[in-house]
Specification:
This protein is α+β, with helices and mostly antiparallel strands and 118 residues long. The chain is 31% helix and 37% strand. It has a five-stranded mixed beta sheet.
C-alpha cells in the first residue's frame, strides 16, 4: 500500500477510536457513492454525523483541516444525501472534520471540528 494511503488509514483508525471514546456509534466507514467517499458515518444523541478525516505528517503546508476544500465538502454532502435516502433517515444531521497530525515517532495530535461546514 502506498505511504499516503497507509497514513490516511492510520488517521481514520485514530479518528474512529477517538469518536468511540466520546460515545459515538460508528455506523459506516469509507462509505462510497459514485466518486465520493464519506470516511466515517456515526450516530450520537439522535444525530447522524458525516465525518471527513484529514491526516498529514506535517503542517508545513497547512493544517490537515485546511485541506477539506469546498469541492470536497460538496462531494461529502452529495454522498450524505444519497446515504440519507438509502436509510430513510429523517432526523438531524451534522458534518464534522477530524484533523490528525501524525508524527514520525508514532505520536499524533487530533482535533475534532463539530458542525464544520454547511
Amino acid at each position: 500500500m502506498a505511504a499516503h494511503l497507509e497514513l490516511g488509514k492510520r488517521g481514520e483508525d485514530i479518528a474512529v477510536e477517538f469518536l468511540e471514546l466520546k460515545g459515538y456509534e460508528i455506523i459506516e466507514r469509507n462509505w462510497r457513492y459514485r466518486r465520493a467517499e464519506i470516511d466515517i458515518i456515526a450516530r450520537l444523541d439522535g444525530k447522524l454525523i458525516f465525518t471527513e478525516v484529514k491526516t498529514r505528517s506535517s503542517d508545513i503546508f497547512g493544517t490537515p483541516e485546511e485541506f477539506v476544500t469546498h469541492w470536497k465538502q460538496d462531494l461529502v454532502a452529495r454522498a450524505a444525501g444519497a446515504y440519507i435516502l438509502k436509510v430513510q433517515h429523517d432526523w438531524m444531521i451534522r458534518y464534522d472534520v477530524i484533523s490528525v497530525l501524525y508524527f514520525p515517532d508514532g505520536t499524533h495530535r487530533i482535533e475534532h471540528f463539530e458542525d464544520a461546514f454547511f
